[in-house]
């Protein structure tokens, strides 16, 4: 109601209150209507930037609804908002409105859009397009009974003629518009029309009429308190901006607090995860250490068991070899005694003892040793035979004794061979293993097999 009476300051206050209510009740349709009215009021109050914000919000909403009539209205308003600011943008929106306008049957909207296109082209000093769109508007205006539409066309055409210095045309159209707004003379249109008339009469040096229309202009201006309302509009605008800034500041503070809360929460969660990982790592580490200890104990037990078996093997080999050597010595001694003995009975007795000793003599002691060795060190001889087929049985025996980490002296005692013979045998083995120029211990090499 206040907006219709052009009491803009009061209209703005009520619209802002209505906007808060509709937003809080999540009513987008009514919110869009109020935002459109706010944009118009801000535009009339010369606050084009604020008007543009609301117009664009309404445009986005109406575009989503795809209502052609409302889209034409908002595009028309956007074009008007840019009219004295950016003519190219203004024409862009007016032409978009004109294209959509062709799909609907609304002469009033077509008149508004054509008149605004004419005004925009007039400011661009494009006379051909200006006259073309004014002619289109006038061709439609005679069919409408809407006084506001007619006033708008005549007022716009009068203003254009004033800029073109066609004073008679200015007077004709301005007076037609004044006649139409007689019932609402104390309005923005009435104010603008009286201003146009007193300016044109000054230019025509008709000071009597100029004074008459200036007085009417002054009276209307005092009546509607344009300057005072502009101040009130600015005050409301500042209050609204302060309110918005306060809300934004509050939101920023909340965002900052939320950010700190999230950071704190992340730190706490990170600390908890770290503690859990440390506990898990400690448990895993303890478990690994226990496993290693068990493995060390097992390996130690296996090593001790292997050493024991090796000692048994060595002992058995030495015992068997000494036994064989002793029996051989006795056999040799008995054979010597037999040769010196004359008595047949004694010789027969000696032969009997010799047979019994020879029967007990184990000629396969080394074969038995190899079998026992193979039980402890599986596949050792097989590996030697496959990798080094040229090795003799004596070579393999020497390899087995070296594998047991026996010294040359110990091997000499077991085999009954001289120290030098064993050394020569070792040298031959190194050649067969292709270790002549290598600084590798023979026992170590055999253990790698």
Account of the protein in words:
This protein has 19 helices and no strands. It has helices spanning 8-24, 28-44, 48-65, 68-81, 87-101, 107-123, 127-141, 147-163, 167-180, 188-203, 207-224, 226-340, 344-360, 365-376, 380-387, 393-403, 408-415, 419-432, 442-448. α2 runs antiparallel to α3 and α3 packs antiparallel against α4 (68-81). The longest helix is centred in the middle third of the chain and has 115 residues, at 226-340. The two termini are 108 Å apart.
Q: Tags for this entry?
A:
single chain; about 450 residues; mainly alpha; 19 helices; about 80% helix; about 0% strand
Q: Main sheet?
A: none
| Oligomer classification | single chain
Number of distinct beta strands: 0
Computed Rg: 61 Å
Q: Mean of the pLDDT scores?
A: 83
Terminal CA distance: 108 Å
Q: Helix/strand-derived class?
A: mainly alpha
User: What fraction of the residues are assigned to beta strands by DSSP?
Assistant: under 5%
Shape: rod-shaped
Order of helices and strands: HHHHHHHHHHHHHHHHHHH
Specify the helix fraction band: over 70%
- Uncertain segments: none
Q: With helices defined by DSSP (H or I, 4 residues minimum), what is the helix count?
A: 19
Task: Describe the SSE topology.
Layout: H1 8-24, H2 28-44, H3 48-65, H4 68-81, H5 87-101, H6 107-123, H7 127-141, H8 147-163, H9 167-180, H10 188-203, H11 207-224, H12 226-340, H13 344-360, H14 365-376, H15 380-387, H16 393-403, H17 408-415, H18 419-432, H19 442-448
